[in-house]
Amino acid sequence: MRKDLIIIGAGPAGLSACLYSVRAGLDTLLLDNFPGGQVNNSGIVENYLGFKSILGVNLSNQFLEHILSLGNKIVLEEKVLKIEKLEKHFKVFHTDGEIEARAILISIGTKCKKLYVEKEDFFSNNGLSYCAICDGALYRDREVAVIGGGNSALDATLFLSNICKKIYLINKNPIMKGDQLLFSSVSKLKNVEILYNVQTEGFLGENKLEGVRIRDKITGATKKVECEGVFVKIGMETKMDFETNFKLETNTKGEIIIDRENRTNIDGVFSAGDSTNIEFKQIVIAAGEGTKAALVIFKYLKNQG
User: Fold this and answer.
1) Do 122 and 209 touch, CB atoms closer than 8 A?
2) DSSP E strands: which ranges in the chain?
3) Euclidean distance between CA atoms 196 and 217, whole angstroms
4) Could you tell me if 283 and 39 are in contact, meaning their C-beta atoms sit under 8 angstroms apart?
5) Are strands 211-216 and 222-226 parallel, antiparallel or unpaired?
6) Whole-angstrom distance, CA of residue 52 vs CA of residue 100
7) Mean of all residue pLDDT scores within the chain
8) Which of 173, 199, 232 represents a domain boundary (last residue)?
9) 28 and 69 in one domain?
10) Strands ordered across the beta sheet of 211-216
């Protein structure tokens, strides 16, 4: 079976692209083993037109329900393993088989960066979170730690300051690298203690998180920061966890480089959303980029004959 278009990634960009490509008459398949993407972790969304306030997971569900209403077998909840470029089409291998397509749209979004330290995976979703907005309320009137030195860490700290009893902001650098106005707001908070030049080495506790083990980068001394919750906020990254027999051009951040029409350096392969080198990462922008990509792909396939 050969599709006109296979979309890899079912976040706002991929879902929007799917909507427009199906409505344009393209035989489309959307592949993602975790539909919804990072919107599921967005907490309350108040900047998406038409919704004054909505939980990210609810917004994501509405996106997906809209796509599913277009017909059966449009969305396949399978993980992509490999993409092969053949002479005039592509072959996509996934966890339940393989399928061919005339064009590919990669809209895999971004993922939270991990520290890759001791017990990080063990305490994930059990005391350790990558989303302060999603999980901050679980730690009301408790002591927590935020790990990071940029805007995402400062944003999380500012948000948590209204919920938590105390926040340890753990920064491996000698200064905060985020926006200075944001840093100024955080530095005035009485329930925030900033720790500079300390490296996070692991998380402590048996079945329950009890703290963070840090090492002073100047003296080499280690100590325990006692807390009941940790928020890792060291940025986002684009991570393609599937193989290809071609090399997509990326920038130093690992973002897929596209032109104004969402074309990559590989003919027939397009990309949209947060996984690309567009400057601003917002739900509405990702959805718009997905729409644009679908319209470009329709024109591209029509010209291919």
Assistant:
1) no
2) 2-8, 28-31, 44-45, 54-55, 75-76, 80-85, 90-94, 97-106, 111-112, 128-129, 143-147, 166-170, 192-195, 198-204, 211-216, 222-226, 229-232, 236-237, 243-244, 269-271
3) 9
4) yes
5) antiparallel
6) 41
7) 94
8) 232
9) yes
10) 198-204, 211-216, 222-226
For 237, phi then psi, to 5°, come to -145, 150
Please report the sign of the dihedral spanned by the C-alpha atoms of residue 301, residue 68, residue 278, residue 6. negative
Instruction: Name the residue among 11, 124, 111 with its Cα closest to residue 61.
Output: 11
Shared-domain flag, residues 181 and 118: yes
Residue 43: per-residue pLDDT: 63
> Is the distance from CB of 165 to CB of 141 less than 8 angstroms?
yes
Looking at 181, 198, 232, which one is the last position of a domain?
A: 232
Distance CA 131, CA 116 (A): 17
The β-bridge partners of 15 are none
Report the domain count for the chain: 2
pTM of the full predicted structure?
Answer: 0.78
Kindly state whether residues 103 and 120 are assigned to the same domain.
no
| Domain at 191, CATH number | 3.50.50.60
Structural contact between residues 297 and 22, judged by C-beta atoms closer than 8 angstroms: no
Rounded distance, CA 17 to CA 241, Å? 21
Same domain? For 106 and 117 the reply is no
- For residue 206, what are the domain limits? 112-232
Each residue's pLDDT tens digit, 47-57: 899 999 888 88
